[in-house]
Each structure stands twice: as C-alpha cells, then as structure tokens.
Amino acid sequence: MLKKLALASCLFVAAACSTVPITGRRQLSLVSDAEMNTMAATEYQKVLASSKLSSNSTQTAMVRRVGQRIQQAVETYFRQQNRQDQLEGYAWEFNLIEENQQNAWCMPGGKVAVYTGILPITQDENGLAVVMGHEIAHAVAKHSSERMSQQMAAQGIGSIASVAVGQTPTATQNVFLQAVGVGSSLGLLKYGRSQESEADHLGLIFMAMAGYDPQGAVPFWQRMEAQAGGGGTPEFLSTHPSNGTRIADIERELPEAKTYYKGR
C-alpha cells in the first residue's frame, strides 16, 4: 500500500509540473492559472483601494507606457512560440502608487504596481523598463504559482489545489499572499536563485523586444547596490538580492538580449 501511495504521489507531482518559457526549467504547479488570476485580481483591487495612486500624470503615463510596451512584447513572444494559451485570462493593469517604497511587483494575470519611491533609482524610462520587465517576467514564468504550490505541498493544505481553494479558502489566501510577496508584512517567501535568474533573463529579453536597451540593466542594478550600501535595504532588494554575481550573469546574457533589441 505504501509503495502504491508513493507511486501515486510521484505520478501526481510529475503531472503537476509545467515548463518555464525560454529557460525550459520544470516547476511544480498545483494551482491552476484561473485560480491564481482570480485571487490576484481580488487582492490587487484591495491594494489599490488601500493605497494612494499617484497624481503625477507624467509619471503615471510613463509607467503605463512602459507596461503596455512590455505587455505587447510578452504577447508577441508567446505567440511566436505558439504558447499564447499561457496568457489566457490576463487582464493587464499598470498603476503607480504614491509611497516612498523602493519597490514594484507584478501579480499573476498581469496586475502591476510601481511605487514612486523607486523612480529616483530607475531615473528614466529605460531604467523603469528594467524593473517592470523583471517583475512581469516573474509573473509570466509563474513563479508565484510555483511558490504557492511548494508551500501548499509543505503545509499539507491539500493534494489537489482546486479542492484546497474551496475547502480552506483562508489558508489558501494566506499562502497566496505569501507567494506573491505583496506588502511589507507579506513578503515572507523569497524567490529562489533559479527564479531570480529566470526573471533577470526573461526581463532582459522582454524589455529588448519592447524597444528598451537591455544594457541599461547593469547600471540600474549598480544603483540599487549603491542605495543598499548607503544604509537600509530597499524593499525591492529584500526579496531581490543584487550582487556582483547577478550583474556578471546579466552581462553574460546581454549579447542574447541585444539580438531582440531594435530600438524605437
């Protein structure tokens, strides 16, 4: 009986795996995209309702312009790879929140928030594209779903996520909030090294396809490091470690990213 259960568990885990675009890495996926997108839409509206949106029309327009260009790049890439079905249910939103957090994030389904506190570090539209490309890459690579799946498996919430969502909604919501890492008290689960590397890699390609120079990623991460060294770690780095190795990896990936860069 134990052998049968073990075999069944292995088969279940194998069946509940997906593949990250571009890198091809296999990841655990116990939660459907529809469930993740629905939870994200609900929580995103809660964030917006409890936040102050920026009244700076120029900066808000820039955030939405960069977001929409990267959105188009992502959709083009997935269409070229005949994987556009992976973006079904996406309802993209891009908002600038007035708060002195040096932070930005993207929930599943394309729900993006940028905080005004990070704009002095991004400096310009190209720097902002580095940040938004990286965060959108986390979403389309389904890193939140992967983290949520790992936590649900570890906590024994349920062997089948759809059942867990229906039977233990509060526990499921808590795990979701931890997985997306939104808010100062919610960023409890850090992205792993492989997830960060993927977000850097995919983000470079998406920003390049959107017409932004991927070379700008190097000075951006250098500025983030300098900011962290000046006392107090920016929120953006609390779950996004920046170091010499990361910058070296980005520099190694730049030649590939530049093949997608046509400029505008």
Automatic annotation (TrEMBL):
Gene Ontology terms describing biological process: proteolysis involved in protein catabolic process
Signal peptide as annotated in the record: 1-15
InterPro entries: Mito/Outer_Membr_Metalloprot, Peptidase_M48
A Pfam entry, by short name: Peptidase_M48
GO molecular function: metal ion binding; metalloendopeptidase activity
Cofactor binding mode and count: Binds 1 zinc ion per subunit.
Cofactors, names only: Zn(2+)
Family stated for the protein in its record: Belongs to the peptidase M48 family.
The protein's name in its UniProt record: M48 family peptidase
